[in-house]
Specification:
The longest helix has 32 residues. It is elongated, with a radius of gyration of 20 Å. It starts with a helix and ends with a helix. With 210 residues, the chain is an all-alpha fold. The chain is 80% helix and 0% strand. The protein has two domains: 57 residues, Homeodomain-like (Arc Repressor Mutant, subunit A, Orthogonal Bundle); 148 residues, Tetracycline Repressor, domain 2.
């Protein structure tokens, strides 16, 4: 039994090592040239694994991108939650608190615009039950729920309305970061565009609540 347990442990360690090598290779290649200019063969070569092994972890190049971006997306949400949480504990405005949450996510997606646009497209239009997309969608729901929670400071706005507003705000982010019109914009410029639209949404509901 102990010998079998040892074999399972070594197998899991080897799988984890291969997954890490694949992730590191895909992350660096996608960052260097953009997902559209990288082949799965190049990823497998840099990771030093057979192409068939790579496909056991991600069946397509799009899934490879989702694997890589999911980790970055998760870290950006965590960073935003920490920043917005600090502001929420102070006298900061709702707009400032929400932007503190959004800004790291905008920076993450716009770090390599081609990769970020494709990632968002794949999450929205891809198969939602595919393992990596499912994980990415779970992070998207976490992000949206965090926005809704920050909107609790709006006067006379109930939970259902906060959920709807959070969906509107995430839609603004998605469109702004994927639209060809904004492809050449810097992360700072995208952040300013999102802030202006967020301010309009929040001012409208503050008037309703007043």
């Amino acid at each position: 039994m102990a010998q079998q347990s040892g074999l399972v442990g070594r197998r899991e360690k080897a799988m984890a090592d291969k997954r890490k090598r694949i992730m590191d290779a895909a992350r660096s290649l996608f960052a260097e040239r953009g997902m559209g200019h990288v082949t799965t063969q190049e990823v497998s070569d840099r990771a030093d694994v057979a192409i068939g092994t790579l496909f056991r972890y991600a069946a397509t190049k799009a899934e490879l991108l989702i694997m890589v971006q999911n980790e970055k997306f998760r870290a950006a949400i965590d960073e935003g939650l920490a920043a917005s949480g600090s502001l929420s504990a102070s006298d900061a405005s709702t707009e400032d608190a929400v932007m503190a949450l959004l800004s790291p996510v905008i920076d993450c997606v716009r770090e390599q615009p081609e990769n970020g646009r494709r990632y968002l497209h794949e999450l929205v239009f891809g198969d939602p039950v595919e393992e990596h997309r499912s994980a990415g969608l779970a992070e998207a729901w976490r992000f949206e729920a965090a926005i809704a929670d920050l909107l609790r400071t709006l006067p006379d706005v109930d939970q259902a309305t906060r959920v709807t507003l959070a969906r509107v705000i995430t839609s603004i982010i998605h469109v702004t970061m994927t639209a060809t019109l904004h492809l050449g914009d810097t992360p700072g410029e995208v952040t300013a565009i999102v802030r202006s639209q967020l301010a309009a949404v929040l001012r409208g509901h503050e008037r309703v609540g007043s």
